Amino acid sequence: MATTTLSLKYRPIKIGFLVRDGNIEDLVKVAGINTLLWGGIYNPIIPISATNKDFSDQLLDLFSVDVLFAVSHTKEIDELIKNNPFLRDPGHYAENIFYEDWHTKKKVIGYLDSINIVDYYWEKEFKNKPKRFKSNCALVKWDSNDSCNNLFSILFGYFPSAYNLKDDFQNAFLKGLKSKEVSITQTGNIDSNLAKSISPINATALELDGYGGTWRGNGIFIGLENDFFDLLHFWNLRASGLMLEFLPKNQAGRFEAFIKEYIKRLDNIPNKNPNIEDWINVYYRGDHKEIQDVIKNYTGNKRFSFSHCDEVSWNGLNIKPASYYFGWQQSLASIEKNYDRYSVSVALPEKKFINSNRNRNVDSQHLAISIDAYSEFGYPGHTLKPPFIRDLNEFYSREIEFDPWSIRSEKDGVGVIIKAHDNSLSLYPISHQKLIEKIFELAGFKASTSQAGLLAKQIIQGMREDSPLEACRVFKVRGVRKLISSLKASESIQWTKAIKTIGENSFDRFKKLHIESREVPDLTPVDVFNFLLKKKIFTPKTNLLSKIFRKKWNFKCKNCGLEERVLVRDFESFWRCPYCEHQQYMPAYIAESFKKQKDIYWKFSKSGLFAKDNNQEGAIPVIISLLTFARIFDSHKLLYSTSLNLQNSRKCEIDFCVLQYDRGDKIQLGIAECKSESQKINQQDIDNLKAVQDEMKKIKIDCYLIFAKTADSYEAEEIELLKSLKKDDRKFVVLSNKELEPYHPYWEMEETEKLPEKYALDMMGMYRNSLFLYLNDNN
Questions:
Q1: Burial letters for 11-33: b for 16+ Cβ neighbours within 10 Å, e otherwise?
Q2: Strands annotated E in 267-317
Q3: φ, ψ for residue 542, nearest 5 deg
Q4: Which of 94, 149, 152, 553 has a 20 to 30 Å separation from 430 between CA atoms?
Q5: What angle in degrees, to the nearest 10, is found between the helix axes of 478-486 and 495-503?
Q6: Percentage of the chain exceeding pLDDT 70
Q7: If DSSP states are collapsed to H, E and C, what string results for 753-770?
Q8: What one-character DSSP code corresponds to residue 122?
Q9: Domain 615-775 belongs to what architecture?
């Protein structure tokens, strides 16, 4: 049984709260609900309006929400929920968050709630403290008529009373965390000690560790206490993982002591880089000069840096939300294969952050676990790390876990929505082929493997079981391609001529190529032809006289070493040793057994998938092109498909495609046109690939056109076509024998040291090299 190691990270489910654009009442409601949820402070608020749909989509993508919750219902909010069915959860609690407990008829919460935090710290720290002990947790109260009422709700959080909850969250916070009560009078100043206290909303972040995100940016938001967009930006900046407080510019006096104490707190935080001084960010939406006038009354050891906030701040290039987890663990998973499908089973680690001793049933509360496989060798051709495409959540769920709502696409692996009592998981890796076809479907294409693609796939898989593509390196040898293409199916060839054909076609270039393990440093034409025999690309046929007269030959069994007289015709296929009963494939031993008499006894012809005069449907240029991408991406990270028929409003065929998405946030898809030496790229080939590229762009996939040709150069008219692509600002990769034949495409050419990307790691690097090598563009 194979195994793999999984990275497992429990986390709260991230909920995207949908509110009416401009409605502060909805913001306040969100603050109350999130005070009840573990991790609630990190849940984003998504404003929805009829006029600005792009901003809501931008926030949904940036925060990678797991489920949606409509705080209010409007036509636009309901439409967004309808258009994102893949953001539903298994129990459909996202439609209400609260559901009725059938015993008490009161409401309970379907996600990890904040009483779990109380239970955890009660057991860990407070249950043995003196009765009068008070922690630094603070329940903040204020007058509902206070002009900062809305701001206080968002800044400190509050426990809503409108939901008929079964549990008393406020009492649990006060007693379980030994909290103190702090009251703010209607026009009174904010207690400076609150800058050092843990408010109810801040408590929802306890025990959560942040990864990634904007690593600098802690500071102050200056705005108006009753401005919807000021409060919205403040909430979402804090939800992204920044340490942030709000300073209302019209009531700066009330907040002065509070903000000054908070600045001291920021000053005491060590610099993230000892050689670079951190700063305190000042976020704002209004006039810059006005903000400078407000902040001049505050000083600290760290300098202030001003950051204007608007929708552009959330384009993914400025603010990057962090991901929050309950720690990080590893677990060994077992891999099995039944009915041509792999399954990965893992026992889930103990959820130490949930206290199971308390008389409160939380088994049905939902949380998520992020899963990242360290290696995927155990299920070749499949993956548990699909690309981060939220629209494919349902597809991922149905393929990986059967349940259509439980899997969430993540940038590193997948997230699985589970219940608190779940203690094991069985996952089913997605086939690379299905995944690629689904991505084309998302772009509006019906994709299916073509006859040429099926043939190339079978040739690859027939080379060996483990890493079969790497066994295809033999096709890089120019003499091998010449031998296969020049010999007709009805013809045969003698050993000497086959070796000569392999050896006279620039063979010196391939002496260091490894097609299998060997004891000597240099590859020889005999090694190459022997390999072709082992892989049954060629098969031997002995002459008729040897068969008639039952000619025998001495042969030592490779298993037991005992010698036996073997019929010459037995060298055509398998032979079983009569002593140890070990079966061995005899054509592999013709070279060493017959030495100088090979031409007397043997002729060789193409066999199997090569025994038809159809140029193998162009499979060989496709295969060595895929090997080239295996060097750039690493072969175990290469997701590819051989030739596909694509159909939307038009039909076309691509010779292969490659998918890469493990470098940054970009998903790169390469679609290819492959040619043999005698063929040319034409305008129709270009137009077909451009049409596919245009559709991929619509779903935000970075699509590259790939042109591969088993020739030493491209002709002038082909170069002109490539120049037209450059003029249209289209990205493409060009490959010829210069890149296709060496082990690595860019390390064995005369121009290696001049290349823009000698160590290219993605298709963008290959694109830059192609411009340099073929269009003389030193980009």
A1: bbbbbbbbbbbebbebbbbbbbb
A2: 280-284, 304-308
A3: -85, 165
A4: 94
A5: 130
A6: 97
A7: HHCCCCCCCCHHHHHHHH
A8: I
A9: 3-Layer(aba) Sandwich (3.40)
Element (H, E) at 606: strand 602-606
Cβ contacts of 777 within 8 Å, gap of 6 or more: 726, 771
Tokens of 700: 């935000």
pLDDT for 1 beyond 80? no
Q: How far apart are CA 414 and CA 689, in angstroms?
A: 31
Question: How many C-beta atoms surround the C-beta of residue 765 within 10 A?
Answer: 19
- What local confidence, expressed as pLDDT, does residue 91 receive? 66
Residue with tokens 């701040």: 313
- Cα angle 361, 368, 362 (rounded to 5 degrees) comes to 5
**DSSP-derived secondary structure letter, 126:** I
| C-alpha 229 chain-centroid distance | 33
Q: Which residue has the tokens 């020889």?
A: 524
- Please determine, for residue 273, whether its predicted confidence score (pLDDT) is greater than 90: no
Under 8 Å between Cβ of 226 and 289: no
H helices present in 1-52, as ranges: 24-35
DSSP string covering 718-760: HHHHHHHHHHTT--EEEE-HHHHSSSSTTSSSTTGGG-TTTT-
Q: What is the pLDDT of residues 129-167, one digit of tens each?
A: 998 899 999 999 999 999 999 999 999 999 999 999 999
Residue where the block lists tokens 């076509």: 721
Give the closest residue to 711 by CA, choosing from 743, 689, 735, 733. Answer: 735
The pair of structure tokens assigned to 10 is 């429990």
Asked if residues 108 and 366 have their Cβ atoms less than 8 Å apart, the reply is: no
Say whether pLDDT at 322 is over 50: yes
What is the token pair recorded at 548?
Answer: 């008639």
Amino acid letter, residue 501: T
Whole-number Cα distances in Å, 609 to 148, 484, 586, 643:
78, 11, 20, 16
Residue 410 is which amino acid? E
CATH 3.40.50 for domain 213-321, yes or no, is yes
pTM as predicted: 0.90
Res 358: pLDDT:
64
Let me know if 744 is exposed, middle or buried by CB neighbors in 10 A (0-12, 13-18, 19+). Answer: middle
Task: Average the pLDDT over 715-720 and give the result.
Answer: 95
